[in-house]
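Batch manifest line 571
LIGAND: pyridoxal-5'-phosphate
JOB: complex structure
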Amino acid sequence: MKMLITEEHTNGSKIAYFSMEIGLRDEIPTFSGGLGILAGDTIKSGADLNLPLVAVTLIYHKGYFKQDIDDQGRQIELPAQWEPSEIMHTVPEKTTVIIEGRTVYIQAWVYFVKSPKGGEVPVLFLDTNLQENSEEDRSLTDYLYGGDDNYRIKQEVVLGIGGVKILKILGFQIKKYHMNEGHAAFLTLELLHQLKNNLNDVWDESYIWDFEAVKELCVFTTHTPVEAGHDKFSYDLYRNVIGDYFPENVIHDLAGNDHLNMTLLALNLSNDVNGVAKKHGEVSQNMFPGYKINSITNGVHSYTWTCDSFKKLFDKHIPGWANEPELFVRTDLIPPDEIWNAHSEAKKILIDYVNSTNNLKMDHETLTIGFARRFATYKRASLLFNDIERLEGIASGKIQVIFAGKAHPKDEGGKKLIEDIFAYSENLKGKIKIAFVNNYNMETAMKIVSGVDVWLNNPIRPLEASGTSGMKAAHNGVLNFSVLDGWWIEGHIEGDTGWSIGPESTETVPDDNANKIDTDDLYNKLEQIIIPTFYQNRDKWVKMMKSAIGKNAYFFNTHRMMLRYVTEAYI
Ligand SMILES: *Cc1c(COP(=O)(O)O)cnc(C)c1O
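JOB STATUS: finished
ARTIFACT:
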């Protein structure tokens, strides 16, 4: 059945949600990690809550990449080629942007995210792979986070400028533009243009751009406290790619004098700016004094991130939970043995899956620790192995560990960490079983976050803006064991919802001594609390599982998050 964009979709004023990556399902491989999954979960909750939302991203014909790993732990990147026409269709209308003086045509694919509640959110995937375009321009929507600055700035022109134009051509009336990270900030320039055109003004040196009107239209969410995480382009590149479209002296005032900083551009042209957890809001406020930065803590889409056995359990005891996660407040009603059985079912699925991919023969009874996320160095994937002898002494025969995650193809440090994990696994053979699951994606994430007993997270404070995989774990009664950073500062109650690693978060920049302090605390708690509780005090463990659901899943979901965006930023 062919679904078209109809007046039902465009009527009324909408929120346009722009994101460089959107992760809705594995068959649409246009995401790399947490940012994309968050965007997907946001849209799904938007549909469930019947919000007037439309989303914009790029199509990426070759996706991010598919990960394979050789037996030394070296990452092999395979193309994630896919066929959009099997999943979505194009709309007939086209728009254009000017890149390096050429007219580049853009068409959109549309995919409808439909909620069982009746809501429906169109997601536009912009595509430049059209006959009208040169070979070079046709490749602009091939790779997510591939290529150099030149490739990236052009993609951001397509996303920001092309996105605003195509929404207009399709008849959407937009009352707010939500930039999910700075990648989409060029949309502000197109909005400034459209206001100018509306007024029939002549554009000369004396023209006064209507910044206030654009600020009123824009909402900006910043996602990283890591300096390198903010896109910056040289003005040479800007001049070459964007040229006369927007005067350089004006953009200097908006995006910085030395470099074009996309975060600054977004900050200067948005009335509502937020970080993604309370701590991240504060850290961002420090990075950008002079701007008012709020925080709206991230969440995950509860239905998407709850495994089948827990879905069944929640349906039985707290019906309606998926569209009203506040009902998790009643988790204590669920009998403990049913919680444990649902967990054992999820654990069996994971362990059997892992055993089918290697010959480690993990078992169903051993305390299983999971660590899966992008292999960025600040996430310290190998912290658990800092003192191998001590780990052996504490945990031989008592734990097994499952890792997964992709390193960005250009991140040699991240790739090295995967090799390190393989080396440690070899080293600990016969003592601690360590598995690495290839090609981390939504499906493997679901298995791992629901099937382990403990979810380990040990980034360098304060570099984890929010983190969301721990929220997924909590939805499945999996206990978080995490550094106090991002969302966990808000979700953590020691010995109740999980455990902390290391001191309270007071840093605004990383502390060089943290590695040692965190490692000591990790080992101490593993030895003295986590291993004994798991094997000797199952009642206490299950009580904590209930707290994770009743206190963490209850709050850290995208339904709550979206209601906050509606009341604090959209209206
Ligand atoms: C949830 C998720 C992430 C984000 O994990 P963090 O721990 O928040 O970094 C990344 N990749 C996939 C596939 C996910 O499902």
